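Following up on my earlier message about zinc ion. Here are the inputs again, as you asked, copied directly from the submission form:
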Amino acid sequence: MSQCQPRPQNSPLENRQAANRSTAIAVPALLIGIVGYVTWIVVVLIAVNYLIKHQNRHGAGIGIIVLYFIFLFPMASSYLRLLMTIPHPGYIEKGSPTAATPVKPAKEAPPQHNIQASCTSTTVQDGTNETTKKSRPTAPQEPPVTLLDTKAILSGELPPPPGTEQFYSKDVFACDQNGLPIWCGTCNNWKPDRSHHGSDVGRCVLKMDHFCPWVGGVVGERNFNFFIQFCSYAGIYALFVMIVMAVFVAEARSRGNALGGNWIAGLTLGAVFTLFAGGMAMTSIGLALKNLTTIDNIGHQRRVMHIAVLVDSTQQRQPRPMSIDQLKPSHGTEDNEEPWQGTITYPLSVLPDASSETTLPPRTSSPPRTFAILRTHPGMNPWNLGAFRNFKSIMGDRWYDWFLPLRHSPCCKHDRGDSMYELGPDVDRLKVDAGLSSSRSRGGSSRRKHRKHRHHREDSEDVDIMGSTLANVNGVTGREQDSFDSV
Ligand SMILES: [Zn+2]
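Thanks, got it. Here's what our run produced:
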């Protein structure tokens, strides 16, 4: 009976997205209504009717009105600024649906792998992946997920989807266990560092923090600072309302005046929003000090990720040439805790017959760049710059930017030559642990690489010295699925 459904209903994902669209309209309207109601209570009932008209305390009444709007204005302006950014929180462009479609049928007809998450690191289609065993069929209504044939790409049988040059032109980028950038099978595009696929909106978002019903959209890289400002100002505003209401409720009770329901409602709303907005503000500021998003913070202490680090001639450890047959599936084992996982050289070489079969535009020839694939220690945050610099990277370099909801975060500028985001000292330590640099250079190399414009020619010479211009993958040890992407 169940096999004869004429037309399936919406999937849970579609239902959630539809609910989010409704929420995006309803909740901001509700919030504005609540603020209007509180304004009426404080200004009209308390300040005008009670203090000025009934008590004849003009100074107190006018003072409360002035203070009320002083606290209301920054909250309202930051909320408005936040709403203005909701259409563009840092969305990543979607790729072509055919970007990762295999153009060459697999010889052994590998089984189709469905995955639970709509966004994943690349998956080896070799039939041995543990992910396959654990996966469940994807709901038929959910958007199709495009998997990469990692093995074919790394062996040159298939060209990689376009866009890898955005990653290997940097010195460091987040990658999967095989050294490829993280792939979003729903957006059909590579995921820039620190981006996350938001299933609520069906898009990848730079430094996505969360889907916020209070603003009806995603809080991400381009509005996290405004979100912090809004929560902080809302917490202060609500605290002011709570104090005013508590004082005059207590005063009215002591004088034996009858309390209206609106007074109690104002006190309750002030208390509830003080706790809620204040709590959100403190949580968000705490994350900003650690340079983590809410999503990053989930399981952060256990999280292990992979980063590709450009290898140059000054490094102590040299790539070890190995054959592509030694490429391991993604599941890996836990017996190797070493940071060093192997190397990968970009641009990826493509076998002549493979490139002739593809409909993709021909790649431009770039100097080869070899990257070490490093596995981070559990809980390591490569972008942790220290509390104050973390805070400034989000809230602004100048103190008044911390308070004015005008400018986007400094971390939105992606004009660095070395990486998409400024890297912290933990990356230098990881390089030392991996044998890529000596402890003497710890801390210095990162700053040295913070120049905005770099010359790739130097790097090509370095790579030639190693004699690995055609070796795509050397000594890749399969690891667990990148847990960074699984939240
Ligand atoms: Zn995506």
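One observation from looking it over: DSSP finds 13 helices and eleven strands in the chain. Hope that helps, and feel free to reply on this thread.
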